[in-house]
């Protein structure tokens, strides 16, 4: 059936993410076969267990090419893949004068170098009409002080998606750029999450922050539509224009 993910094999990288959890839940509901990958296999196994017995855990660290190669070998042995999604991120936030090289490298590994290596090792395992999907973010499109590294990594994701779409054709490659989404990472990142959400909701044209289900629905559209390619889909309630 066209535009269906039933029985499609989907690998999602970034096992601790609430957005990944929402996507896994929606994909399972639709009958997809989901593997969830993370750099810490114990954490990943417990995340998959929480999402249901059907989800397979896989060890994969985007900062370690050998782990990416080993994960690809396992996927090849299991028969390949229809879609690969990476939601992974590492934040290197703060005034540019305070940024540490190690944190910058981790941020670029998660969003730029890692996705390039995913393409290197997984693209040949993707079935006809399959795709790669990488996660960008609003910081690239609406820069603010303290988020220079995040702007650079997220902007690179978008550029990478269109470049890879050309190089890996006919495998499709897209990017998704969320705005502020109500996820647990804001408990750590924001000094006052509720106040931040209130301010975002007041200024965003959608008049609310996003929900992981908003992002999951958009990710699904990018996976199933065989004519969306090299695109960056913004799921930010119009926040780029506020
Ligand atoms: N939430 C938002 O409001 C928002 C806004 C704009 C953009 N986005 C984008 O949407 C995506 C998902 O966001 P989120 O908030 O749900 O993410 P999150 O909670 O921060 O989770 C990110 C995940 O990436 C994993 N990761 C980091 N480095 C990795 C590596 N080297 N190898 C493998 N995994 C690695 C982390 O693993 P561990 O669990 O091991 O730490 C974590 O599970 C991200 O790309 C983010 O930039 C989100």
From TrEMBL:
Record's keyword annotation contains Disulfide bond: no
CDD domains: SDR_c
Keywords: Oxidoreductase
InterPro entries, A to Z: KR_dom, NAD(P)-bd_dom_sf, SDR_DHRS6-like, SDR_fam
Gene3D superfamilies xrefs: NAD(P)-binding Rossmann-like Domain
Keyword Oxidoreductase: yes
One Pfam family, short name: adh_short_C2
Domain Ketoreductase stretches: 8-189
SUPFAM superfamilies named among the record's database cross-references: NAD(P)-binding Rossmann-fold domains
Family recorded in the similarity comment: Belongs to the short-chain dehydrogenases/reductases (SDR) family.
Alphabetical list of PANTHER family matching this protein: DIHYDROANTICAPSIN 7-DEHYDROGENASE
Protein name: SDR family oxidoreductase
Species, as recorded: Streptomyces olivaceus
